[in-house]
Amino acid sequence: MQPTDLADPQPNPDSGKPPASSSSPASSPSPCPEPAAPSSEKPSAADEPATDEPAKPEPEVTPEADPEVAEKEAAPEAVEAEAVAPVTADAGDDTKTPGRVRRFLDKPWVSRGLTVFAAVVVLGALLYPNVLRRLTLGSFARIPIEAAVLILVLVLLPRRPRIAVGSIAGVALGWLLIQKSLDMGWFKTLARPFDVVLDWELFDDTYSFIRDSYGQLGAYAAAGGVVFGGLAAIALMVWAILRVADVMARHRRRAALTATGIASVWMLTLALGVQLVPGVPVAARTTATYAWDRAWQAKNGIANEAAFAGEVSQDPFGDTPPDQLLSALKGKDVVFAFVESYGRNAVESPEFVEGTGTVLAEGDAKLKQAGFGARSGWLTSPTFGGNSWLAHSTLLSGLWINNQSRYRNLTASDRLTVTSGFKKAGWDTVSVMPGATRAWPEGKFYGYNRVWDSRNLGYQGPKFSWAQMPDQYTLKKFTELEYAKPGRDNLFVEIPLISSHTPWAPIPSFFPDWNQVGDGSIYREIADMGEQKADVWASTESVRTEYGRSIQYTLTTLIDWVQKYGNDDLVLVYLGDHQPSSVVSGDNASHDVPITLVAKDPKVLEKIDSWGWADGLKPQATTPVWQMNQFRDKFLTAYGPGEH
């Protein structure tokens, strides 16, 4: 059967007449069509039955008698065109004239341009880095071996398998593009890559942080950008690979030679160690290596989660009798204060040394004058730039909690924490959580009798970006509600101080007269007149300056609180939860944070002489560095009756 487009046109329904005899002059057609010849199947005149009536002549067809004939007579060229016209939509054909967009895309120069663009997209995705500082032209001036492999695979496949494999490859490459982009954000804030198994839960906290810092509209915009951007990346990669594959299928020989050439040049540059940019080899296997590393990371993450259950159950202090827990601190009020983003850089970095160093030096002198002594050391935090609760749980549980899965499994266990140890030994345990805006079920795991948060601390002032209230208000309210209450039991308290939380704008002012703080209304004018986020984050220098000011504010507030309100039985442990994000600390900063123990009773400080901590509020460069999860056991051992 022949195609029905132009190869086998339908005959003209009016052209069923036999062709004119050869004797008819072709150059002088009759003005009217000849009458149709009688069919050979009709009976002849001799066979016709005889009648008495004479035969009636056939009526002559004239233009006046047949309008259709008249129309064809007037336009004989239309008849000829109709005879060779293809089947139209009226005759049952679904062929339609291409629209403007289709005609435009089918233009040779547009089609070639789209093909080149698709090839550039695929090449760019294969060379796309996962660290922001590597996003340079030098990273793309390379030869990806994956391109040669992809070309050979697609060229050798028939059409349908080629479409299937190309689509799968597009989805995979699109996903790797998304994960590399997530890595960039994670490296910039948390100094580690995105964990495809364990980090999905952090999107909820990220959304909450954006909402609290930039408003609900900003949170919606960020969420929409992530979702639609991810879908667009995958769709673009699928389209690009399929378009390139279609072109290669039409030029198989050239495509195969191209793949061979890419592989040959890649092997040559690899053998010679060619580099156009120092430290960046021209021969690249970025995508294959990255995919393998992430698959291995996922496998290790699953195995790590399974092994954690055994770590939780192995607790040397789990069965310690109450009378042997923390016996050297009997009669003391113990306060653990986490200073948000108080990292080693805040103490040692040249741009912060003057400001932070002055606050610590002056504060050390004030506390000594008030009869307090101090010892300071370093701890290595399990997190960086955020996720403060991982540091809190690591310090209090004695386990390395560096991801959300471990945190979730820990809080579902009955592991002894520093808090539950104090509760078991007879202390009244309290948590003051100024940044919490909803119920905190983990408080039961830690062992707190009461939790004060932003909903019941009575603050009537404005938010300071993410921070629900300034640290000075938090400490003043804690003093009124718990610390200065007459006839109370000895307290164990955990207080996160949050005024130094990113984005560090605006920053509250410190009031030497604590009575000025009141219900917080005094802060309204300060918040309106302070530096705003948009202005601060316009330059890295401004961000670092405001970060330094926020640390100085919190340390000034905490030291002044000890001097004014601290009694003879106060034991204060304050530390950083993690370093600030890399916009402040740089790309290669450590995870170390300062930790300081302050007490008026010299016997409390003597118990930790063996730790090797520096005297005063500032640790030294030579001071020992511990993993943060080591602190619980060292603390319980130092202030208990014996070794464990």
From TrEMBL:
Pfam families per record: Sulfatase (PF00884)
Disordered: annotated span: 1-100
Residue ranges, compositional bias (Low complexity): 13-27, 37-48, 76-90
Residues passing through the membrane, by range: 109-128, 140-157, 164-182, 217-242, 254-277
Domain Sulfatase N-terminal: 374-582
Source domain of life: Bacteria
UniProt-recorded name of the protein: Sulfatase N-terminal domain-containing protein
